[in-house]
Amino acid sequence: MEREFSAKRVLLTPSCTHSLELAALSIDIKNGDEVIMPSYTFVSTANAFVLRGAVPVFVDIREDTLNIDEQQIEEKISDRTRAIVPVHYAGVACEMDKILEIAKHNNIFVIEDAAQAVNAKYKGKHLGTIGDLGCYSFHDTKNYTCGEGGAILINDPALIEIVEILREKGTNRSRFLRGEVDKYTWVGVGSSYLLSDIQAAVLYAQLEQIDDIQKARHKIYKKYIEGFSDLEREGLVTLPHIPSDCESNYHLFYILTKDENEREDLFSHLRINGIYSTFHYIPLHTSEMGKRFGYKEGSLPVTESISSRIARIPIYPSLTEEEQERIVKSVNCFYKSRKSKSFV
Question: Looking at the domain 2-207, which fold is it?
């Protein structure tokens, strides 16, 4: 990954959750610090910082990419803000130039949650290599997997040794392995954030085929866009959008329905036809934990709307053309049926 992604330092971890925790530890997050992030993300994005006593400050998302709305970040910054955590949803990059500009102006860190974005790019740069730190996931739901695993990308040279010590139980064992010291010892706080060799071997075999896997997913993604394009033109659904300066890794495919009731009807229709489709994140700010931080429904309207309307459609490299054609046909039949009923 260091070689192929032009990353300064990459260390494997047991999961992306652990990578995020390492990131929080490495920038010395403390009780009362604030960390800006989207609410439309997995719980690990927030938990990694909440575990250190920080307060998550949620920002609404963009309707086109479902990423954090960079135009709303600056107004959420206070004198307690320590970091911005952009989450690259579905392998599509956040507007990183603007986010980096805001962070630099306010002297705060940028930690990329690139769990879904391994091998995706923003203006030619691999996601995860742009902020001060980046975090990858190799969970079994991801494009490249070893069952459960992750990586932390250290892009600020000043943080490399800090992360190495934290990851190796608070020792300078990494320097020992490089021959820089003749023995290693306890030099700071830390824990065991190491991926097993067996899992690393499984992952390496997948990374050797990284381009082939991405091409297969891209082919399926394009066929979905073509298959559902008439529905979008008629204003019946909204399809994913990839900005021109972004190169996706095609992690997810989804459609946005008119409302939640329509989505639930679509789910039922697909399941009757042997096709599994599902929702995605329940916004963190509307969760039980989110309410403890003072949030309530209505706080982030775009996030709440997207969460209630998103329907994820199967996408994985071994999906056959026949299976995909059945999915496309089934979704189109659902909307054709609804249209005909509306004219009765």
Answer: Aspartate Aminotransferase; domain 2 (3.40.640)
